[in-house]
# Entry
Amino acid sequence: MSYKRIVLTAAVILMSLVSCDTLFPDRTAATSTEVFDELWNAVNQKYVCFPNRDVNWDTVYTKYRGQVSDDMDDSQLFSVLCQMLGELNDGHVSLKTDTKEWSGYRIDLVTHVSRLLVSYYLGEDVKIAGGLRYNTIHNGLVGYIEYASFLDDISDDQVYEALAYCKDCQGLILDLRGNRGGAYENVRTLLKFLPLEKELFKSLVRHNDIRDDLKQNGMLLKPGIKEKSKLWQKPLIVLIDNRSYSAASIFAASAKGCNNICIVGVKTSGGTSIPVYHELSNGWLYRIPTIKLISRSGIDYENGVPPDIEIQLDVERVKYDSEDNIIEAACEMILSHVEFSKWCQ
# Structure
């Protein structure tokens, strides 16, 4: 008997001894009630933002557990699970199947009008470096950089390219309004070019099974940049609004307190925790924050980062005068040459 025939025969015998269920396990074997309990318990044991949420998780279990039965279909189960997770009111919480996805994130469409004039300020000769769009405004006296999403990757070279273009300006505006977050690595890349303290955040994780008991789990440090000459030392105004979320909030919180930086706009939507995906026994994916970040001074910004100076968007001025009052106020602050320490108390 040839070697190949021996191998083939052995394979056939092996297949006959091992059931198809073992080789190809049925991912839908878990019942609806088991999946519900699995997800509720996962949140109960891993979720780090209970102290920030006005929710009784035990009451949530009682409210929704009775709506689940083993004879319901996947669509009905998905609906109940999404309603349960929705009680957390957390934009970092989501549930995903092969065909659909639910997220707790909600967009405030009222302030969306603030994006209408960005292209106007950037001009037809807008410069682009990775996810950054930039130019100078006010006769070249002020640099303006828009970063629409931290999902759009940026490199050290691209950030320096934008900053170098604005080097002769009296100050710089970084517009993070409407930035819903993205990759934390892009936050770290931007922070490299700011003269900040090395320690930015402490990271916390769950301790034991107590929902509001967290323990420190290492320290997140700001990576330094080798050439100090590349750091932006002139005035920098960071614009935020109530649609600045997640990574955008982390950046704003990190930049707070620096002598040459002022945060302007309205309070962000928060989301300074780190969400992680996990798989349920039926193959669905759920995402919840399992790491909480608090500032080096111990401030928890999960529910939002407040600006140093609050300025509401004047929608009427945007619509009828084609002028963004927040950008104009930022320009006035830069050109007034007043030390930011006097503005940002």
The first strand starts at residue 94 and ends at 96. The two ends are 87 Å apart (CA to CA). The chain has twelve helices and 13 strands.
